[in-house]
Sequence to fold (113 residues):
Amino acid sequence: MWSSANTVSKLRKLSAHVLVCNHITCLRRGGKASAKTLKRALKDRDLSAQVLVTKVKCLDQCGRGPVMVVYPDGVWYGGVDEETARAIVREHLEEGHAVEKRVLHDMRDGEKK
Ligand code: FES
Fold:
């Protein structure tokens, strides 16, 4: 078997996956602090086991960073400061609606902002 039961069990708990840009421009715009705040907020709200956070290279929206993308919804966020990171956890990941003021693109409806 190529994966352990423990690994599969962890995957089944996931409800969302957040990609966090960890590349030059987003880091210069405060991305490191935003990512740290996102993880802290997930932990504070007991969502760490349900939301996987992965740091990635450039998401090709450098001028609009820090950039984060929430899947499976496919909602792209720009200008994610620490306040927005907390709002993403509270409003999007916990309550289920996007933080509209920071949405760059919502793949669910194809709307471009
Ligand atoms: S450096 Fe973050 S989108 Fe390019």
In short: Residues 31-44 form the longest helix (14 residues). The helical segments are 5-13, 24-28, 31-44, 82-94.
